[in-house]
Amino acid sequence: MDSVSNAEEPASSWDELYNFNFMPSELFLKFRKEIQGVRVALNMEIYNAPVNEVQAKLIFKPLTPEWKWKFIYEPIQHDVRILSKKIPITKFLNLQVGVGHSFKMHATGWKWKLTTCLGGDNVSRIRNKTSVGVFPGFDLRFGWRAEYVLPELTGGLGTGEPMFNMQSGRLHASLDRVEAILTHSENKNCQTLTEEVFKSVVDRTQE
What we know:
Helices cover 12% and strands 54% of the residues. By secondary structure, the chain is mainly beta. It has one domain (16-153, 164-206). The strands form two sheets. Strands 1, 2, 3, 4, 5, 6, 7, 8, 9, 10, 11, 12 and 15 form a 13-stranded mixed β-sheet that branches. Strands 13-14 form a two-stranded antiparallel ribbon. The longest helix has 19 residues, at 188-206. InterPro entries: DUF7781.
């Protein structure tokens, strides 16, 4: 009987305090080409939550600081959009405006969105992106999120409540998005590095 009761013991209380999810719900593969101040990109976007979906996007984005818009074409949905850059309103709050046309529905509309690295109530949730340069021309970008509830200390005297009570906090962290970005630039340094690598491979082959 003791062995049976031990096998059915509930999970440790530590499991209720934190939870980490490292399975991303979004996988992006981006190919970028920079031509005379204009970035041409082809994005393959795979979503596995809440539904399985694949999207393709062709993006034209001028790299000059004066240009505040980018052009997006989605061949699968037959949608065309012109999306603005994120316009900073405050230190943590940005505004983004877009105008789009759907060839399937023969409709044109616009929408706006407020974005911030702090989500939810701007206190208990953090959303951010971290980029890692693997080598010139190849970067990995991770979109992660952390939601937490700080511990709370309460107490009372003459109210029927305990004089001292502590409610432990909770932490939930998840890896939401993984992006693999391949960039082909006309940068001379990058071109020189590519030529040196190619030359070394040829020399080894000839040996």
